[in-house]
TrEMBL record:
Taxonomic lineage from the root: Eukaryota, Metazoa, Chordata, Craniata, Vertebrata
PANTHER family per the UniProt record, alphabetical: SI:CH211-193K19.2-RELATED (PTHR31025:SF27), SI:CH211-196P9.1-RELATED (PTHR31025)
Species: Cyprinus carpio carpio
Protein name listed in UniProt: Uncharacterized protein
SUPFAM superfamilies: CAD & PB1 domains
Keywords from the named record: Signal
Signal peptide, first to last residue: 1-17
Amino acid sequence: MFLIYPLLFRLINRAMARPVKLRVILADDDARKLILPEGLPSSTEDLAQKITEMFQLDGDIRLQYQDDDFGGEFVNLTTITDVQDKGTLKVIFKTTGQNQTAASTPACLMLCQADDSASVSSFETDDTVLLSSPDESVQSTSRSAPWPLVFPIPCFSYDSEIILQQANAEFHENRTRLSPSPKLKSHILEVLAEEIIKYKAYPTDLDLNTVAEALINKHPCLREQGSYNGCYGWKISLKYKMANFRTKLRSVGCSEVSINSMKNKRQDQYHAASNIKKPRRAEVNYCPQHPKGETSESLERERVDLLAAIKKRNNDKVVKEKMERTFSYRRQEVVQEKPMIAEFKSRWPALFNVDEINTEFMRITTVPLEFKFLAMLDQYSDSLMKLFQSKGGVTGRTIKNIMQPISQNNSIDMRRECILKALCVYLKG
């Protein structure tokens, strides 16, 4: 609770700020609406960072705005005062590696990639976010996106793609299903498991079912005869493959699954089976691996340096970089050791700051906390107001006085301010 109250008071102040609406162009055929409930940030760098977080973009970007002095042509954004409410911004990616690999891609795999694009675009909505591949030289071990609405089926080996394409053509012509050889089926399951682990180490039955459905949608020749949905057998095979894959990852020291190793548990075998540490639904990065070249010892030294860094003035950038670098070390400490709050606060005081709470939430869930919080607050405002009305006693009278300004000014800013203040009182009562 001690983390909730400072965040709520911060949100109250931001709720009073005038929201800004922007049209953000990500590509020639992709424009998004962006609402900044707390208004414009203080600098263009902060605005670019917010856009990167909101739309989960990958890589460095710069922004352009429409300059009226040049007939509305796009010009690089250098000062935040050039951004107007309901204005249009254009995102320019500074680097991209897509063109560098196209020439060396085999024709069969290029066809596979084209099929991927077609299958994904047919399921796109206005809220779909397309992520480009990160540069391998700076790629983090942390996941960058939650479980997708439509699971992307990757390309298989060169010879497997040839077999599947020929079988798909045969299926479309005379509905003949392919009976995959053990070698082909094993290869398909192995590639799918490697793709699933990019999102989850412990997928649910529903997750595995979406993967199996995506597989038969892309390769209808693999649809099963007699199955109620055409892919039940694939789902069961994926379930066993993921269990075997986790065993292999555990043997090489993958932290996310090695925490469930029997030798690391103090309980007997009966209790250990029911005490598996799995991420919750929103936790994308539950227990990530350390960054390349880092060890627990080196990150512990980084943590000690962080204790000194937070005591210096105007040192936010250094603190932020060190907190980012030690994320995996901090998560493994939380998951494996389950420290008491007082102990954890003494070891990681920089985390107990509103900005770092937001950033840590983004690291774990890939979702911006304040933006999501205000959106859900608006969604449940009516329900919360009914809940407040049912509260009696001194707390109820205090909440009634807090909610009184809404009767004179029912703007979204006033509603948020009053509801957040009333929620603080309600939680205390």
